[in-house]
Task: inverse folding
């Protein structure tokens, strides 16, 4: 909800700026390019941040899975948190709990690294935007 509330005005403003800057006969094409760019950027961002998160998760679990977990099950547990949960349910109670705790901690660390990475990228982009646009002036466009 917070994400949508914060993003909706930005998307509306960006689309208005893009379509408003294009000549009337090209407004449809400008809108389509804007939407395509937004979809591509969103998908690329999810892919990159997701890759960072899973890399941290797998890196943390590489040597942290208890030695008594069978190798095939250890490989499944290293793939995803869901896999670790399934494997933990098949193991004896104490061993399963240990594996699940380790996997949850690795997942949490992966999410934390991903969140910090996203925050740093957004901060960098905000600073870059402020630098690039610092000399731009607002120009009123007469209504048609």
Result:
């Amino acid at each position: 909800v917070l994400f949508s509330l914060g993003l909706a005005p930005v998307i509306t403003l960006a689309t208005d700026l893009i379509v408003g800057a294009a000549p009337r006969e090209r407004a449809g094409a400008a809108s389509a390019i804007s939407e395509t760019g937004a979809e591509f950027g969103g998908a690329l961002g999810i892919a990159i941040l997701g890759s960072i998160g899973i890399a941290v998760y797998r890196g943390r679990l590489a040597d942290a899975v208890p030695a008594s977990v069978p190798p095939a099950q250890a490989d499944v547990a290293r793939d995803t948190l869901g896999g670790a949960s399934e494997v933990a349910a098949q193991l004896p109670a104490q061993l399963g709990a240990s594996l699940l705790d380790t996997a949850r901690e690795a997942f949490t660390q992966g999410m934390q690294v991903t969140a910090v990475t996203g925050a740093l990228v957004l901060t960098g982009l905000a600073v870059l935007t402020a630098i690039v646009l610092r000399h731009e002036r607002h120009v009123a466009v007469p209504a048609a």
About this structure: The first helix runs from residue 2 to 21. The chain has a mean pLDDT of 90. Helices lie at 2-21, 27-61, 71-79, 81-90, 93-133. The chain has five helices and no strands.
